Structure formats: structure tokens, C-alpha cells
Amino acid sequence: MGTPDPVRRSERARTAVLESTIDLCRADGFARMTIEGIAERAGVSKKTIYRWWSSKGEVLLEALAGRAEIAAAFPDSGDLVRDMCAQTMSVVELLSPQETSPYASLVAEGQRDPALSAAIRTRLVDPFIARFDERMHSAVAARELPASVDLGVAVDLFYGPIYHRLVFGLGLPDGPQLETRVRHVVAALRSGGVPRPPAG
């Protein structure tokens, strides 16, 4: 028998840590989850975890990065309303159920940890917004939206209602509710925006 490949063994340990983190966060919640618990479930030492990450928030971010990339996909069928209904639903599914969603826990923890918040912005939010902008540019090219559309306003209008309801515990929107909101947003963007007040 040959000597075990340390790279392969290290990757197995890393995968076990990430999967254990998601499982524990979903089962116990972020607040009760500990590095000790993750290490025990993954069958590794705490030292192994701290060699790769400095906090349980960083571990959770790493664990969710791949799943968040899937939710960040933007379909482009030529029907903006249908595509954005599908896209926003994928975000809602990532956050559901709110009480046990690891992603919702990560969002909440980011509000308390400035370093984690910055990492979330770099790893998840900025790439998501870049893909959103690409989809909106495609909609402009297809004449589904005017060239004057404000992309910053657009991303806030599409996703603000989701995170508003998440933060205040109002219940995440279901399919019909999302469609209503998406149709309102698209109609508003197609109208060319809010008229500027008269000068003076």
C-alpha cells in the first residue's frame, strides 16, 4: 500500500468541515454552532480548521460560496419578467426556511462582524451584482428596458423587498407575491424612471 496523498487527504478534511458547518448551522443555528462542534462532526482537529479559517463565520461563508453561485445565475430567455421571477425565487429558496437557513444566518452575522461583512461583499455580493448588471444590459439590448435604466436603482427594487422581509421577520414572499413585485419593478423601469422635479 502506498502512502496516503496529503493533498487528497487535506481536501477530504476541508470538504468534511464545510459540509459539517452547513449541517450544524441548519440544525442548531449559527449562534449555538462552535468550532469545536464543527471539528467533532467533521472528524478533524480545531487546529486544522484554524489553519484555513479564523472564525466560524468565515467557515460558513466558504461553505456557502458555491451554493450562492448557483443562486446567482441569471436566466436569459428573452422574457425579463419570467427570468427575474425565476432568479428572485432562487434567492428566496436560498434563504428558506428563514429560521434554519445557513445563508440567512450568514447575512445576520455579517451585520455584527465588519470583517465578515466585507468578505461577504467581496465573495458573494459584488459578483452577484456584476451578473445582475449583465442581465440588465442584455434586457436593454433586447429593448426590454430603456438604455437610461439606473442599474443601482434596479437591483435595489428587485431584491430590497426580499431582504426587507427577511430582516424584519415578515415572511419571505412566495411565487405569486414575487411575480407581482417583479412585474411592478419591470413596469417602473420601463417607464423611464422618476421625473426630476422642476428647477428652482
From TrEMBL:
Ranges where the HTH tetR-type domain occurs: 11-71
Q: Which residues bind DNA?
A: 34-53
Record flagged with keyword Cell wall biogenesis/degradation: no
Q: Name one GO molecular function term.
A: DNA-binding transcription factor activity
Q: What's in the keyword line of the UniProt record?
A: DNA-binding, Transcription, Transcription regulation
- Which domain of life, per UniProt? Bacteria
State the protein's name.
Answer: TetR/AcrR family transcriptional regulator
Species this protein is from: Leifsonia sp. NPDC080035
